[in-house]
Amino acid sequence: MMRLLPIFLLSSLLLLTSCESKESRAAKQLLSEAEQSLADERYDDALIQLDSLHNTYPKALQERKVAMALAREVKMQQGRRDSAYLQPLLEQTLHAADSMYLAFTLIEAKGMADENVIRYQGYNPAKAQPEVSFLDIYIDSKGTLELVAGRSGFAPIGVESIKIMDTKSGSYVLSDTIPYDGGMNYRYENLGRHYERLTFSDDRAAELASYVASAPDGANLRVDFGLGGERRGGAFTLTRTAVKAIKQTYTYYATLKSIEDMQLQLKKYEKRKEIYTQP
User: Burial, 165: exposed, middle or buried (Cβ in 10 Å; 0-12, 13-18, 19+)?
Assistant: First the structure.
């Protein structure tokens, strides 16, 4: 036994050395692949390979240091490329948004700028004919898209959701269910008539509005009111005026969101460049 112990220890040391050497070689291979990806301007692939190196080979300390420096260079070059592409695209999109805005009307709330909204050519069915079923749409002062489903009758109805359906193709989109809360789902009574307003905001509104915006010309779009579960609370067909207002408002909203995203990406690149170029 005494003679076997040194041999066992030597074997273990050789095995450990071999494993470390193997890990180092594998890490170097990933570094080489990442460098090639960088040279080919495949920045996402390079970052995936470098991230894999960090997660898979924790003991390859020297290679990990090189990988960190290389990752910074990848991000810088990726940001430089994206910036060169985004800057002119941003300018074009800003001009497009300015042109679109000409078709909208600013509805000011006196003394409450936070309550200002913009509407497509003044489209405001809730004000024009509050007793008629409608889909209203506008963008508030924070750039949030709001879509309001309105219904009225001589007795409470209890609307909690809507479905927009193209009756020609049979395709449809369902809204979320919003139980009565006095806020997003609010109700009031005036001169014996009951009014119900179901409001979808931002992403919820965008999903519904994008369905209308993508509908083919001439589509017959029907809005069904849901009362919770499978119960229905009536339906109506969107007018051409309503469809146009929803399409144009959604398009303008999507353009504003695109501008916001591009500005954020450019800001991230400038911040990264500032950090990485510090001595």
Answer: buried
Burial of 126 (0-12, 13-18, 19+ CB in 10 A): middle
Q: What does each C-alpha distance from 275 to 176, 201, 278 come to in angstroms?
A: 43, 37, 6
d(Cα 169, Cα 188) in Å, to the nearest integer?
36
Tokens at 20, concatenated: 């470390």
Cα angle: 97, vertex 101, 102; to 5 degrees: 130
How many CB atoms within 10 Å of residue 203? 10
Task: Give the model confidence (pLDDT) of 68-110 as tens digits.
Answer: 888 888 888 887 887 888 889 999 999 999 999 999 999 998 8
